[in-house]
Amino acid sequence: MKKTKPQYLLHLAGQNHVGKSWIDPVSTMEANSMSTAYLIEALRQENPACKIVVVGSALQFDPISMSTLAHPYSLSKTLQVLIAQSWAILYKMPIVIAKPSNLIGPGISNGVCSIFARKIVDMEEEKAAKVLEVYNLNVQRDFLDVRDAVKGYEVLLKKGKPGKIYDVASGVSRSLEDIIKGFRSLTTVDIEVKSEQDEQIEKHLGIVPQKLMCLGWKPAIPIETSLRDILDFYRRKE
C-alpha cells in the first residue's frame, strides 16, 4: 500500500470452499475475516481515501438470527462484511460490500456448473460413466456469469455508496434440473441423472440486484452462453 497508493481496490482474496471451512475453520477465519481487517487497516494508514469493494458471499447470514448459520465459511464471510462495514462507519472509509450469487462462466471453479461441465467433458471423451449424481434436482439457486459480476464490481467502485451491501445477481432462480437441461442441449452425450431427493424443494436465497441496477448495471450474458462457455473451456483444457 505504501508503494502503490491505490485509488481503487477490489478485494476478492480468501478461502471460498465450504468443505475446507469444516476441516480447518480457524484458517478460514484468518483468510476471510482477518485478512480483510489487515488489508483495510493498511489502506487506512496509507491511503484512507481509496475506494474499496469487499466481495462477500450469498452464503453470509444475518448475525441477529444465528439460526441461519450453516457452516464456518458462512461465519467467516459474515465477519468479513461486519469488519468492512465497521471500518466504513468508524473511520469514514469509502468501503462498499458486494454480495454475489453463484458465479459461473469459463475458468477454473469448484462451483456446481463447473463440476457438471468437467464430468460431461469426461463423458464425451469416454473417461467417465454417463451419469450425473446430485442430491436434489429441485434445489433453487441464482446463477450469474462472472463476467457480468466483474462489470458490477466496477460500477460499485465508481458509484457504490460506502457501508452499503449490494446484491450482485441475475435476479432469476433456477433449479439444478434447469442447469442440467441446459447442458444436455449442448452435448451429444446421453446423460443419466440420479437424484437422492426429488420431492423436497429448497427455496433459493433471497438476493435481488435492484440496488445495483439502479446504478446502471444489468446482466448481459444469457445462461445458455455461460453454460456453453464453461463446457468449451473444459473441452480445450488439457
Tally the helices: 8
SSE string:
EHHEHEEHEEHEEHEHH
Structural class estimated from helices and strands: alpha/beta
Strand order of the largest sheet: 1-2-3-7
Distance between the termini: 38 Å
Uncertain regions spanning at least 5 consecutive residues: none
Radius of gyration: 19 Å
User: Could you give a short account of the major beta sheet?
Assistant: 4 strands, parallel
Q: State the helicity in percent bands.
A: 40-55%
Task: Categorize the overall geometry.
Answer: globular
User: How many β-strand stretches?
Assistant: 9
Averaging pLDDT over every residue, what do you get? 92
β-sheet strand percentage: 15-25%
For the structure shown, list the relevant keywords:
238 residues; 4-stranded parallel sheet; 3-stranded mixed sheet
Outline the secondary-structure elements.
Elements: E1 8-11, H1 18-23, H2 25-46, E2 51-55, H3 72-90, E3 95-100, E4 102-104, H4 112-124, E5 131-136, E6 140-145, H5 146-159, E7 165-168, E8 173-175, H6 176-184, E9 192-197, H7 210-213, H8 223-236
Parallel strand pairs: 1-2, 2-3, 3-7, 4-6, 5-9
Antiparallel strand pairs: 6-8
Helix pairs in contact: 2-3, 4-8
In brief, what are we looking at here?
By secondary structure, this protein is an alpha/beta fold.
Question: In words, what does this structure look like?
Answer:
The protein is α/β, with parallel strands linked by helices and 238 residues long. Helices cover 42% and strands 18% of the residues. The chain has eight helices and nine strands. The chain has helices at residues 18-23, 25-46, 72-90, 112-124, 146-159, 176-184, 210-213, 223-236; strands at residues 8-11, 51-55, 95-100, 102-104, 131-136, 140-145, 165-168, 173-175, 192-197. The strands form three sheets. A four-stranded parallel sheet has the order 1-2-3-7, sandwiched between helices. A three-stranded mixed sheet has the order 4-6-8. Helix 2 (25-46) runs parallel beside helix 3 and helix 4 crosses helix 8. The longest helix has 22 residues, at 25-46. The radius of gyration is 19 Å and the shape is globular.
